[in-house]
Amino acid sequence: DRRRPFGQTRDLSLVDDDGLLDEVAGLAEWPTPILGEMDPQFLALPPEVIRLSMKTHQKYFAVKAVTTTVGGYDSGKPHHTIERLAPNFVVVANVEAADGGQALAAGNSRVLSARLNDARFFWDEDQKVGFDAWLDKLKGVTFHAKLGTMSDRVDRIVALAREIAPLVGADPELAAEAARLAKADLASGMVGEFPELQGVMGGYYARAFGLPDDIADAIRDHYKPQGPADTVPTAPVTVAVALADKLDTLVGFFAIDEKPTGSKDPFALRRAALGVIRLVLENGVRGSLQAMMKPAGTMIVTGRKLSGDTKYSADLLAFFADRLKVLLRDQGKRHDLVDAVFALGDDDLVR
């Protein structure tokens, strides 16, 4: 933990990244943190872009300015805090540098500048292209051989989000428009460079193009929750798009018999099902799971000219029941009644 007091001597604090810390610690026999500087103009980039550029390409730690308190007892204004990235980074060397690391810091700063210039190029060029051009590109991107292109998938998510919107208190047209744009950034230059930023960049670009916050937030957050520890969106438009996205994935892969088997889950369907369950439970969404799934099933079976066998619906409902039992067990709640309730045809999770 030598990194912590090092940063604090300059009123700076590391952006915690335990995964990167473990990786760097394994690469250096005698890890020596060195504080470097970058051009402050790069702070105009989204902070996620800066952090990923540092981490992915260079194994640098991002640095943030120590929390600033505004107001105080004497001023009569309430306290609130501001956090922002600082124009600095920390690189871990494997030597004790004689000059205190100045030469190493300068060299690494030049390398980082080149990386961030590349990121700035993507940021600037993407804003010259925009959503319509990206959506057109998705027509040539295959989602799955049996489920069509990404553009086909977007059309299904749009229709499904419009259907779900009234159940979650969202405006159907806002939900449909957010769903239409939600996957567009997959064709952007920045997401091509940093796939981890899908959704995040779409949200930034939506704001840059002056779209409503409800739409920008839905684009940014519709992949959530992506795991048991991830936050669950609560904004109605976001919830509608997030449910539509996950239900299309689940119904689609179950309809073509690509269900998880044993420990194999190549399409992350367990995570998607848990996401649907948490979205429904934590937002108090009332309604039948089967009713929510039906429009997706109809679009997929008829649109992709599948056999029309509806057995997948019962299999998927049983899959949801299994995921719900796992969630309840992990929360220390009773899970033994789930099968009995589902067997009675009651799949309203909030009831």
Characterise this structure.
The protein has two domains: 3-129, no CATH class; 133-343, Hypothetical protein af1432, CATH 1.10.3210. Helix content is 55%, strand content 11%. It has 15 helices and eight strands. The protein has helices spanning 3-8, 18-27, 47-58, 102-129, 131-138, 150-168, 172-182, 189-193, 200-208, 213-221, 236-255, 269-282, 289-303, 311-330, 338-343; strands at 12-14, 32-37, 61-65, 68-72, 77-82, 85-93, 142-144, 148-149. Helix 3 (47-58) crosses helix 4 and helix 6 (150-168) packs across helix 11. The longest helix is centred in the N-terminal third of the chain and has 28 residues, at 102-129.
What are the key terms here?
alpha+beta; 2 domains; four-stranded antiparallel β-sheet; two-stranded antiparallel sheet; Hypothetical protein af1432; disordered N terminus; 351 residues; globular
Structural class: alpha+beta
Q: Could you say which overall geometry the principal axes of the C-alpha atoms support?
A: globular
Radius of gyration: 24 Å
What is the CATH C-level name of the largest domain?
Answer: Mainly Alpha
Average pLDDT level: 88
Q: Gap between N and C termini, in Å? A: 48 Å
Could you give the order of the helices and strands?
A: HEHEHEEEEHHEEHHHHHHHHHH
Task: Label the CATH architecture of the largest domain.
Answer: Orthogonal Bundle
User: How many domains is the backbone divided into?
Assistant: 2
| SS field, number of helical segments | 15
Give the topology.
Layout: H1 3-8, E1 12-14, H2 18-27, E2 32-37, H3 47-58, E3 61-65, E4 68-72, E5 77-82, E6 85-93, H4 102-129, H5 131-138, E7 142-144, E8 148-149, H6 150-168, H7 172-182, H8 189-193, H9 200-208, H10 213-221, H11 236-255, H12 269-282, H13 289-303, H14 311-330, H15 338-343
Antiparallel strand pairs: 1-3, 2-6, 3-6, 4-5, 7-8
Helix pairs in contact: 3-4, 6-7, 6-11, 6-13, 7-10, 7-11, 9-10, 10-11, 11-12, 11-13, 11-14, 12-14
